[in-house]
Amino acid sequence: MSWELLLWLLALCAVILPLVQFLRFLRADADLTLLWAEWQGRRPEWELTDMVVWITGASSGIGEELAFQLSKLGVCLVLSARRGQELERVKRRCLENGNLKEKDILVLPLDLTDTSSHEAATKAVLQEFGKIDILVNNGGRSQRSLVLETNLEVFKELMNLNYLGTVSLTKCVLPHMVERKQGKIVTVNSLAGIASVSLSSGYCASKHALRGFFNALHSELGKYPGITLCNVYPGPVQSNVVKNALTEELTKPMRENIDQSYKMPTSRCVRLMLISMANDLKEVWISDQPILLGAYIWQYMPTWALWLTCKLGEKRIQNFRNNLDPDSQYTLWKPKRD
User: Fold this and answer.
1) pLDDT tens digits for range 311-325
2) Domains and CATH numbers, the chain
3) How far apart are CA 111 and CA 139, in angstroms?
4) 233 is known as an active-site residue
5) Which of 163, 203, 233, 262 is labelled catalytic?
């Protein structure tokens, strides 16, 4: 092969490879590192068996689906949320469809805002199973209201639940993992923790706080390589997060009948989470386009991202006032899901 031909081939590759990556990105529903791990990485079925997994917010949505998919992998589950009756329903679902027995699932009602109860809850898990291999910080609530119309108590509740509650439980579990020199802490954040949006100011603030906390914790755990932190940033996912969102007043419920058919199926989001856990990925973004693209713009071009967010925010607020899901504007980018 002549040098001239070799140079032509290298030049052709230099053009084709970026094009291939661009086309992959247009079809992506997660960051490319996570999608590579899905293709070539370790399987959850190999890595997550025989572990004790504690899930907060396990009564619905991502937490419920995570429990369901993990139940097929032969793990021991600890299910926590405030609604004990719903946790029992999730437990029955896991027993009926998974590979677990009654003794493998502990229902442990927990209020994340009651931080005084977290130490006792941690001791209860250790007494039941003797260890905690994975803590999944999934509990939390969203928000749908404008800053000017929102009571300060709503912002306090969001910080107490989403941020301080998660920090408190993490601090209770972390000494056990340090003693064993191993463990995984998986925190379900949100792309709103990277790209702030209108109508969710308090929610975004709590998620930004979580990102700062766990990034700092990463740097403090350098001498414990067996303890891994995984921060998961989902975009819109089919769940009850909008239905249960806080509004301008703590006691005012969110309106019903919000269409979520266009959002990512919870099962797909959870499968990608399990892959990230199996491969010890530090930060993963999970979302359909164009919201995934928006996260990249916020990461690398924040000034332009802020301008774009302000423009899209006008439509988001208009949708909200018209009793539509604020994110429904993005259905123009892709066909509606069945």
Assistant:
1) 888 888 888 888 777
2) 32-289 (3.40.50.720)
3) 9
4) no
5) 203
